[in-house]
Here is the input.
Amino acid sequence: MRLLLKGGHVVDPQNGLDETMDVLVRQGKVVAVDTAIDAEDARVLDVCGKVVLPGLIDMHVHLREPGREDEETIETGTLAAARGGFVAVACMPNTDPPLDTGAAVRFVLSRARETGYVRVLPVGAITRGLGGTELAEIGELRRAGAVAISDDGRPVTNATVMRHAMEYASMFDMPVISHAEDAELSAGGAINEGYWSTRLGLPGIPAAAEETMVARDIFLAELTGARLHIAHVSTAGSVELIRRAKEKGILVTCEATPHHFTLTDEAVAGYDTNTKVNPPLRTQRDVEAVRQGLADGTIDVIASDHAPHTAEEKEVEYELAAFGMIGLETSLALAVTELVRPGILTLGQLVERMSYGPAKTLGLDWPGIVPGAEANITVLDPDASFVVDPAGFASRSRNTPFSGRRLFGKVVATVVEGRIAYEAGVS
Amino acid sequence: MPLRHKDLLGLEYLEREEIELILDTAVPMKEIFTRDIKKLPTLRGKTMVNLFYEPSTRTRTSFELAGKWMSADVTNIATSTSSVVKGENLKDTARTLEALGANFIVIRHQMAGAPHLVARTVKASVINAGDGRHEHPTQALLDLFTIRERLGRIEGLKVTIVGDILHSRVARSNIWGLTKLGAHVTVCGPRTLIPPEISRMGVEVTCDLGEALADADVVNVLRLQLERQKKGLFPSIREYSDLYGLTRKRVEKCKPGVLILHPGPANLGVEITEEVAEGPNAAVHEQVTNGVACRMAVLYLLSGGGKPGEIAA
Ligand SMILES: [Zn+2]
Here is the structure.
């Protein structure tokens, strides 16, 4: 099958493209990028006035399969990804059972082949059972297809275990993804510690609970020379620590979520449990630091930390509610609305944070929109707006704090390996 | 003017005029039950449920009496802490109570925001009888009432709240109520029990009790949960008592006529000595009496009752 994306504005900074171009796709590959391509037998998608981007990657999602298929499945999660403009997602290993064996990783990949709409990149566990003590068989995880290791959701408390994980993972050139949280400083906490935790009477999680672990892991990355990736950076202090580590040449990358560059802890005021997330929503100063980090490249990646939960897990007392919010179907629009439209990021920088950044962090071969490359393309209408309506989500869960919000940036089409995984108006 | 709210979730959500209306309404209510005049028929045929997830004989009994003076049918449901942890669903419980005919749900819960969840779920009026460390609005109302009754005003007074501010819903409700009514509030306690950025709620903060007492017109002493010591928040009860206990010696250095409040039950000899709690400056027993009056006023106003003058006492 041939596909012609006609008349779109191609934005691909790595290939020096920022102009109106046609893109011709054949047998899963980009075969031509040029002005005025004619291809009579190709399916033509008129994308005049839209932007054509190298396919976006969300490198931090929870697909919940196996184990919590009531919250999400690989099928529903990857459909949500396609609708959100993502051609690939990296899924976290805190499933049941966790992705701590080659067999578990192969299971996810085979389910993704059978039911998935976009490419699935499994992240293996650092430790067996995510228990924080014994290393998982990281070599076996790599052979099975894991792209990184993480005990996401649970910090690796023991610094020696983390050190060994980094040393061991570096043999396979795999990044270690750190969920940076000092579990004792954060113990019992439900929201950011500060004025709002005081006012609302909710137990707080201080910024230092994240920053002490970011600092520790940076020192361990320096010690081991391993590649460290800090997940969901949420505080000004973390951004500053990572900025200085990069200046020193330490191999550290990091990501920020749309909720951490959009919302503050003030959003918790009505005790809406959809605002409960870990790390928690922080202060305006933190939001500004995260935006600055995204603008200057200290933060390499935008990732959603898509964390589906059922209504039963959320419609309870705030302190009892599960942490996490879904993000696949709002992430790109939040980035467009909160970062591109106010001029914090150019579209080219958005492509760096949402396509090349994650690809490079995960060590993917990611040539962009260039002849010969696998055709992974996101077509976006940055000026079209919509109102977030969770009832219309492809995700099996509805836990978003953005319900009812008007956002800019609608996905027109998501092309995965040359196939249209999602096309607006076609369900 | 009735209250413009279905629920009483906290003093945070009330305007100054609404707080004053409740206090004004509590005056004839106190008359009614201290002089044993006949009950008010306001809530005849209405059902009030006390849903207590934390044991509290005092507050529950006070609400129960208030309900009875208003002619409500009162039911108590004591639910253990463990049933919350086990995930017995609060929304389901609230819906069940409403289906059983509850018009008022008085809820005490160890988690902040629990009354809000119930209020969103049911049409019945929800009264917060203490939610975690968030608010305990009727306690603050009775404190305000007691201050007004004893000192004649609230505006311009200097009020010091001493103790475990971090975990105290009484402190937060008092801060909202007092600052809205124009008092100057100082909170005082060990640094480990002062929550971050509390000054943004419009209060002064000090860890020095002498300084906090020096020009106070009112001192509200909070109950210390003794188990906080085990969590390392202060080294010993003895040291806490040395630094923050209200003793006669300390009261003697205060302004003459200083009013001393305590929400009870007090750990005598820890945060306050018996001599002070029972002394002439303290209003511990009046507070209990005033609590019933204030809760009657809240029930009256939430049920749509009008100005205090209209109460047929
Ligand atoms: Zn995480």
Remarks:
- Residues A 152-153, 179, 231-232 surround zinc ion (CB under 6 Å).
- Chain A is about 30% helix and 25% strand.
